[in-house]
Write a structure and sequence with these properties.
Length: 130
């Protein structure tokens, strides 16, 4: 039996990595603060500061180990998604029809069960007439 083993990833959080994450958070907060502080300078200054500082925060985040792990996860997800065998249009249409038919049958069954229990409880046991 061929067993695929996944390599174990040991995450070592260094002080440099923590500093990068802290810098990314600081840039993110700085972007928000700059946007509101520069409200008197005009719309272009506000948005320019926001975009530049957000881009800096994203860049610093993706340079950290957490960011690199996120990029690796995304690449692995795309690689696995390419392995998926998608159904043909005819098969997908048939399966959708089966699901709708099952829903209709189940709805009828539940309605019939509800009405039967209602009849047994209210008419036969309690004797309430409507």
């Amino acid at each position: 039996m061929n067993q695929m083993t996944t390599p174990q990833v040991d995450t070592v959080s260094t002080s440099a990595d923590k500093a990068k994450l802290g810098g990314a958070i600081a840039l993110l907060l700085g972007a928000l603060v700059a946007f509101y502080v520069l409200s008197g300078q005009g719309v272009y200054a506000q948005w320019a500061a926001l975009v530049v500082l957000l881009a800096g925060a994203v860049t610093v985040f993706f340079m950290s180990e957490t960011g690199k792990a996120l990029i690796a996860y995304g690449r692995e997800s795309v690689r696995e998604l390419r392995k998926v065998v998608w159904p043909a249009r005819k098969e997908a249409t048939q399966m959708t029809g089966y699901v709708f038919a099952f829903v209709v049958v189940m709805a009828l069954f539940l309605w019939l069960t509800d009405k039967t229990l209602e009849w047994v409880l209210y008419d036969l046991i309690l004797g309430w007439k409507r």
